[in-house]
Amino acid sequence: MEVASEGSTSICSHCDRAIPSSNIDLHHAHCSRNLKKCKICGNMVPKKHAEEHFLNTHAPVCWSTASGRF
Ligand SMILES: [Zn+2]
Ligand SMILES: [Zn+2]
């Protein structure tokens, strides 16, 4: 259940989340600098972990090393 909190929210154009309007500038600066939208699954992923996310989530099976499977 969502309760309308005091103040309004704005949708961050980078991550499409509702952010308190008082925070949107700060959030957007942080968001666009640190987060990246995964082109494959559309999730927001920290830029630092984008590669890790890709490898863990979208890497082709043949990339897995020494898993012993198959
Ligand atoms: Zn954002
Ligand atoms: Zn992804």
Write the layout of secondary structure elements.
Layout: E1 9-11, E2 18-20, H1 24-34, E3 35-37, E4 44-46, H2 50-58
Antiparallel strand pairs: 1-2, 3-4
The structure holds zinc ion (2 copies).
InterPro entries: Innate_Immune_Apopt_Reg, Znf_RING/FYVE/PHD
GO cellular component, one term: mitochondrion
Task: Explain this structure.
With 70 residues, the protein is α+β, with helices and mostly antiparallel strands. It has a single domain, classed as Herpes Virus-1, CATH 3.30.40. The chain has a two-stranded antiparallel ribbon with strand order 1-2. It has a two-stranded antiparallel sheet with strand order 3-4. The longest helix has 11 residues. The model has no long low-confidence stretch (mean pLDDT 85). Bound molecules: zinc ion (2 copies). One zinc ion binds next to helix 2. InterPro entries: Innate_Immune_Apopt_Reg, Znf_RING/FYVE/PHD. One of its GO terms (cellular component) is mitochondrion.
